[in-house]
Amino acid sequence: MKPTSATAHNTSSNSATKASTLARLRNPLLAAAFVAFTTLVFFAGRSTAPQADLVLRDMASLKLAIQEQQAEVDRLRIHNRHNVDALAIRLGELQAASTRLDALGERLAQMGQLSLDEFDFGEPAPLGGTSDLDLLGPYTEADLRVAILDLGDKLRRQSTQLDALQSLMVGRQLESDLTPAGWPVRKGWISSRFGERSDPLTGQRTMHWGYDFSGHRGTDVLSVAAGVVTWAGPRSTFGNTVEIDHGNGYVTRYAHNKSLTVKPGDQVTAGQVIAGLGNSGRSSGPHVHFEVIRNGQRVNPAKFIKQLR
To answer: Are residues 58 and 157 in the same domain?
Structure first.
């Protein structure tokens, strides 16, 4: 049976949490760090979901294909129209390729779990336009001119929808990176949960405001989301403590560490080592006391711990 260790804290520290959070948000240096951080976190040092990465890579390929088609349509507009037959064949090929791009755009929207009502790449041309050129029937230079204009409009619409889709996916991934998820230790086990319990040092009934993860002394303590370090050092009964503000109303706290590897103002990514597990402060054994604070209020970390990134 694995030994247990637990944190002993009283309820009075809840008000201190609110005050310390407000004080940190008033620090202009930390605010400036957040501005720089949120523009970089999506592009560097992230722990990304393979599905999201695949969608974004395919978006880049689709955007390039649309740009190439737009360039080809522009060339058709100024092409010498003496060879109408050749132009008609090339235009038909471009129309077929555009239809395939519609299918790819719809697939990307589905992979990104986005509403097809908002990203309808297969939307027909507005009323009054012409249908795809009928290569089997008679056609004139005027027919070609109208068909080229219609295709150009369609490509512009595809490009606009793709830009919106890409922006939404980037924003969604950024929000995911900044939301707590997973365990705050490389290896270990849960030794105490959120809620009322008997204080491990006094035996009295007290409120435990977080989760305790026990493990071997020096085990890696990990940030559960990207953010900016707002506290790194001794903190009352918490001992050596790291606090990270994630810029979206979430703050996470990691207490009783043996050693710290970050300092205030550091930008961290999800899964980054921020400390070594220890037994500092008021504690009955080596563990990390982990808290999630949402808009100044400590909340049960259970649902965040269960989430996978």
So the answer is: yes
